[in-house]
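**Discrete fold encoding**
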Amino acid sequence: MSPSCPISNRRIDTNLVRVISFQVLVFTVLFAVTHSFFFLYVILFDFTMRAVRQEQWSPFARAGKFILKQWQVDPKYSDESPKRFALYLGLATTFLITFIALFGYFKLASLVALILIFCAFLEVLFDFCIGCKLYYALQLAKVIKYDRNFN
């Protein structure tokens, strides 16, 4: 289903993405269980810092790089564009969860959080990125033009 490689001139370590996804998974589950805005704000801050390419301020990216360095895991690179699209979807989903929760609809916010939990779970366990698959499908449908430098 994926178009010919490379899609992007930029590469990303998928091992780092999986470690970050694990942290997103944990913090989202903690929000769903406790309804504490602290966990949402951390996720929002992290997604935002990575979306604006300020990874040095991303707590999840920093922790992930530290973990991978300690475990001496070799990087496994892939094209950045689909992962970046998935990052924007995660950011939008987290904004939606926060917006819903701010109005006091915690059950609905937790239900939407299940989407983020499910996507992060698939990324962590199976290296299966739903956002990436959606990105490829949108490219094939010509909704997203072929862009080697998706920002």
Remarks:
- Residues 1-6 have pLDDT under 50 and may be disordered.
- The longest strand covers residues 11-13.
